[in-house]
Design goal:
binds fe (ii) ion, alpha+beta, five-stranded antiparallel beta sheet, Hypothetical protein af1432, about 475 residues
């Protein structure tokens, strides 16, 4: 078996494993269908373990992967199985030489248990230890999240709770007289946020392409929607509770609502601001927080984020008076989204600059303006070259970014559109920049830089 044949077999293994798990949730261990699926797994493994001592499959992001290369095609089809494995913390599964049918049967039985049942017996680890399985191992490694992020996630409930408790009173105290009270329709916002969420869960890349609609006005509605999309994407990747994810979405959408209190002529002024005008601008987070606190049904998190959204990770920025010695996780998330989209918008003004420059500029501020782990996670999610970006390759070809890579934020999947002489390809083809030349071990193609769509190089209609 060559490398590709092994990979195909492993893909089959993953597919059969998902199938076997499903069968076992419906039928007993001795049922014919269970036996058949266990047999299939056994023979695939026997072939594979004849040439390898160990076969390890794992989950990277939302995909099943073998030797760090995801199986994009099947992963989408077995999303339920992947989600289940994530839930029970089985992110890596290794099959070792000598694995028996009995072991596979027992293993499939464990995989078919739901999380409640597993937890009752002390979780997957405990259940595994008390089993007779010796030649199958599982692990938690392989997930995109970094350990520091894990810590953030573990602590988030506490951080949020603490901020909720004292945030409201302090904000009420600080917020001065409001110019006018604005009514905010929460039901509309909630359905909008859940709409974005549904899209994110089913088709992340296409939603990201949507954010490529750049805003020339930093405070426009489009900007706020983009901030919500980027923030929901981040929140979702951190496996936060769904309730909290939605609250972050609402908070992101409303973070700049205090701008309503700033006269339009100051907002639109393109000459230098006077001290007095700058003071008015700087008051918008406090006004925003106050408006939100006074809106019935709006979660205090939205006011916290509105209050803090110009406070940087190192607590520089404004307002100067804070109610905690660190900003809320939701604020850290929203700030990253806000600055990212604002930078892109500014570039649109100045005649477009490269997304890789935005990346460099933000990474430079990592640890100061932004939490390092969240920023790294953000660029892992959207890639340095987000879907919809045209890029020139070291081969001279021009491609369009279709899907970011979970493994390398500078190596997305492309659709190659133009050849190395700038000619339109009659048959554009997909290319994964993670592909290496088997002889040299070097990457086959690499992005040199992004390019601005022009008459000569266009983004085809179907991707717009
Ligand atoms: Fe703002």
């Amino acid at each position: 078996m060559d490398k590709n044949q092994i990979r195909d077999k492993v893909e089959k293994l993953v597919k059969e494993l998902a199938g076997a798990q499903q069968v076992r949730t419906m039928y007993s261990q001795d049922h014919d269908l269970t036996r058949k699926s266990v047999n299939k797994l056994f023979y695939i493994l026997e072939d594979l373990l004849f040439i390898k001592d160990e076969i390890t499959i794992g989950i990277i992001g939302d995909e099943f992967a073998f030797e760090k290369e995801p199986f994009y095609d099947i992963s989408a089809k077995i999303k339920g199985f992947i989600d289940h494995l994530k839930e029970i913390d089985a992110l890596k599964i290794s099959f070792l030489k000598g694995v028996s049918k009995e072991e596979i049967t027992e293993f499939v039985g464990i995989l078919a248990m739901n999380i409640e049942t597993l937890n009752k017996t002390g979780g997957l680890e405990q259940r595994f230890e008390s089993s007779n399985i010796k030649n199958i191992a599982f692990g938690k490694i392989g997930y995109r999240k970094k350990s520091d992020e894990d810590i953030i996630v573990e602590n988030i409930a506490n951080i949020a709770k603490r901020n909720f408790e004292n945030g409201e009173d302090v904000l009420k105290e600080i917020a001065g007289n409001i110019l006018e009270s604005k009514n905010i329709d929460l039901s509309k916002i909630k359905s909008f946020v859940s709409g974005i969420m549904n899209n994110l869960l089913t088709n992340k890349s296409s939603l990201l392409i949507l954010t490529a609609v750049k805003t020339h006005d930093e405070y426009s509605f489009v900007h706020n929607i983009n901030v919500a999309i980027f923030s929901l994407l981040q929140a979702e990747s951190l496996s936060l509770e769904q309730r909290y994810i939605n609250e972050i979405g609402v908070a992101a959408l409303l973070h700049d609502v205090g701008k309503l209190s700033i006269p339009g002529e100051i907002l639109r002024k393109d000459t230098a601001l006077t001290d007095e005008e700058f003071k008015i601008i700087k008051s918008h987070p406090v006004f925003g927080a106050k408006i939100l606190l006074e809106s019935p049904d709006i979660n205090p998190l939205a006011s916290i984020v509105a209050f803090e959204h110009h406070v940087r990770y190192n607590l520089s920025g404004y307002p100067e008076r804070l109610f905690n010695d660190k900003t809320n996780l939701a604020t850290m998330i929203v700030t990253i989204s806000d600055v990212y989209d604002a930078l892109r918008s500014k570039r649109a003004y100045a005649g477009e600059m490269a997304p890789e420059k935005t990346y460099e500029q933000m990474i430079e501020q990592s640890g100061r303006d932004f939490n390092e782990d969240l920023l790294t996670n953000f660029f892992n999610l959207i890639g340095v070259y987000p879907p919809g970006t045209l890029v020139e390759l070291n081969t001279g070809e021009i491609g369009l970014v279709i899907k970011e890579s979970a493994l390398d934020n500078k190596r997305p999947q492309l659709e190659i559109l133009y050849d190395n002489k700038g000619g339109v390809l009659k048959e554009p083809y997909s290319f994964n920049l993670l592909e290496k030349d088997p002889k040299t071990g070097e990457f086959k193609k690499t992005i040199l830089h992004s390019i601005i769509p022009t008459e000569k190089f266009l983004v085809p209609e179907k991707y717009r």
